[in-house]
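WARN retry 2 of 3 for item q-0093 after timeout on previous attempt; input resubmitted unchanged.
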Amino acid sequence: MTPDLEAAEVLLAVDELGSIGRAAERLGITQPAASARLRSLETRWGLTLVERSARGSRLTADGRAAAGWAAAVMEQVEAMTAGLHALRRGHDRDVWIAASLTVAGFFVPAWLSELRTRRPDAAPHLDVVNSTNVIDRVRRGEADLGFIETADLPTDLATRRVGIDALAVVAAPGHRWAETERPVTAADLAAEPLVLREPGSGTRRTFDATLGMTPTVALEAGSTASLIGAAQAGIGPAVVSRRAVRGHLDRGELVEIATDLDLRRPLTVLWSWDRRLSATAEALLLIATGKT
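OK item q-0093 returned
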């Protein structure tokens, strides 16, 4: 049996929005259709993935695990779809993009929408990898533009800032830090088993550099959804982009832990000095940097 991707989309939207109705609106379908997709997924696999109530809907522990896997799958589906579109069109209209997880999830979609408005024939291909791999792909000519989320910038590539992001330390409401009145120190963080992205990701590189010491790792994962699920399950506090957990914080599913660290980080686009950008890549570069 293979998972239903349409049902997976509904599951991820319910996790983010806390409501089947709002998830249906996000996906452009009716609420009964969204509910039917979820019921079909649960029936097919014999699992209860969503708890439904008059106050809204939230994922069960099984649902959070499934959502973590679904997010990784959907990232690959999006990359595959973009790649197939690129193959169908002429290479002169292609733009090959490598982006780290936060930039790909919260910035690139809007940039690509604007690119489509300016250049309807554009054929973007998006590959979502960690910041270290983004840099490598631009160096090897496998990506025209790369987007990373770390202050550790390569000196052999052209770079330009496109924004600022902030990391947050989040934990389940029952964690002992949830009620602390003082900011958690770097030493506290280093001693606490944490849920972290893998080495090489922009999130991990930023956190390790800011912490200034080796962290204690409870779990490493390559997916933000997996980190969030692990934190909700009580495995340990997680370090993630604040943008990614805004909904979970608003719903009280996670608590942000105050720290004495400055966890802001730049978001940067990079490209090779040695290769001429296509007209489509130039257009995307201007959009991302806010130029006209």
